[in-house]
Please model this.
Amino acid sequence: MIDGLKDKVVIVTGGAHGIGKSYCRAFSDAGASLLIADIDFAAAEKLAAEIEDQKNRHALALHTDVSNETATKEMAARALEHFGRIDILINNAAVFSVVPMNRGRIETIDPEEWDRLMAVNLRGLFFCCRAVLPTMRRQKSGKIINIASGTVFAGAPGRIHYVTSKAATIGFTRTLAREVGDDNITVNCLAPGNTLSEENPTEQMVKFRESSVALRSIKRIQFPQDVVGAMLFLASPSSDFMTGQTMNVDGGISFL
Model:
């Protein structure tokens, strides 16, 4: 267990499914209070209820479309109204699995899908950070953790719009870290590798996740729990003097 997260208030976007769901459960286990912001409100509400059913655990579900600026402002306002502060923002929401995307090559990607993906993966990142920063600046404290992807470092063909958005996330992280450091706010990036995060994966999806095993130094499928430790470290006081950085957690495919 990583110390220093008890009673912290954490917003996790896209927290109702996949790795985001694992982040939420890990933060709750560490004693933090959660706002689970997801476009799938029913799933967010179910997870929040599961957390609230445990003694001294606190979670609030909120329907949030991160590509909508008004929705992200409401997200921050509800966190303040319910918990009184915002300590940590996890920008996890993305078009990837729950909101499906074309995984083909550049010729197969519709321009409308490109725009929709950028609206969620990048404009959403921009809006969520802007929504919480006034509070974090007033507090003179805060942590923002953006989610990139190991695909940025691999250069594998396919889903170029997704990889582009995750490469941009790293640049966004570095610039924002420079802009908010004077307010004692850190901004870091976590880049998971190819992770079996689906709740009911098809045989085809399992084979896709297995395709990375041969490339890894650690020869097995990656699971959400493999990423959680790095997330808790970045959110905890243990990383207080670390900002603008990207942690790659992929079992040893790419060495940065």
User: Anything to note?
Assistant: Strands lie at 9-13, 33-38, 59-63, 88-91, 142-147, 185-192, 246-249.
